[in-house]
Amino acid sequence: MLKMAHAAVQGRGHKLKNSPCQDKTYTLTKNGVSVIALADGAGSCKHSDVGATIVVETVCKVIAARFDIIYNTPTISREYLVNYIQLALYRKAEEISAKFKDLSATFLFAAVKGEQFLAGHIGDGVIGCLATDGRLEVISKPENGEFANETYFVTSSQAIFRFRGYRGTINQKKGFILMSDGAGDSLYDVQNAALAEANRGIIEWVATQTDEIKASKALKENLEKVIVPRTNDDCSIAVMTII
After folding, report:
1. Fewer C-beta within 10 Å: the chain N or C terminus?
2. How do residues 198-215 score in pLDDT, each as one tens digit?
3. pTM above 0.85?
4. How many angstroms separate the CA atoms of 159 and 80, rounded?
5. CATH number for the domain including 45?
């Protein structure tokens, strides 16, 4: 049995500027596949909040529809997935009369079907998991550019080569957690490339919840109270637990 919760909240910096939250999260269960996704819109791009929304919704729909193909043909599927997301962004840019780059965002996802899992990542943020033996593990670390405040986006011409894909079985895994770099300021130890202990509590708490909507609302409230005061950036988390 799988349980999910997700939340994205506006950071202090964006509140001061009266600008929208550029972090977006999304979940989907369809065709026997459960997916969580998170995207962090580029701060310098005019419509990155729109782009991040398109990215998370598209990722979830593609993974739910093509899980088996993507799992069994990872090299080909990497190009397919990135191209599909980029096409959705091109269409949205045309619809709102914006430049493609204006919709720039990073993205992360994790998906489970039966005993198999997929995960993927472009840019910063972190994909982590809690093992059945209690260990917190980092599946995918942030990837920054030449400088610490730079990263890579799905709109980049190098996006296919920057995409990091993961697959395996859910054996010995209790849950997955995705976080943006804003949430990572509190939940990820950059120096040691390790998840903070608080991730265990978040994943185990989601496992006890019975209503995703209520759990997501509570998660959002906790982000606002505990995580947002520690950073100027937007903060987002998506969690999937395996029971």
Report:
1. N
2. 999 999 999 999 999 999
3. yes
4. 12
5. 3.60.40.10
